[in-house]
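In this section we walk through a basic example: taking a raw amino acid sequence and producing a predicted 3D structure, encoded as discrete structure tokens. The instruction is simple. Fold the sequence below.
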Amino acid sequence: MLGCMPDPSLTPDWPASVHPPGSDSFEQTALEWLFDHVPADYRLHGVLRRHPVALSRLARQYASAALEAAREGYRTARVDLRDHLPPHALDQVMNAYLEEGRRAAGSLRSIEAVDGALRTAGNETAP
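The resulting token sequence is shown next.
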């Protein structure tokens, strides 16, 4: 079955649940995956379902902001919290920022991969 074989042209950042570009289910699986990476209220906007590249753009911005927030939190937490937390708790907060930063960076790379594929697919179907 074609859907079971990994596509060697996809980057390591490609989300496993998103079918490869060019497949019949690519846009639908991309939409479902992207909606899982933005606030739930984004599902209220029909335009984002009708135009997946618009959703991928919003998702890219959302993930980018989350990454920047984790970086800013990491830069400022030690000074901001040193009078409020014991050292071991502060170390745990710093580790949480590191883990969230890594997670956000990974999500952003995956969203960028899907966004690029949606943009390419959109250009191929444009008149």
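Looking at the output, two observations stand out. DSSP finds four helices and no strands in the chain. The two ends are 32 Å apart (CA to CA). In the next section we compare this with other chains.
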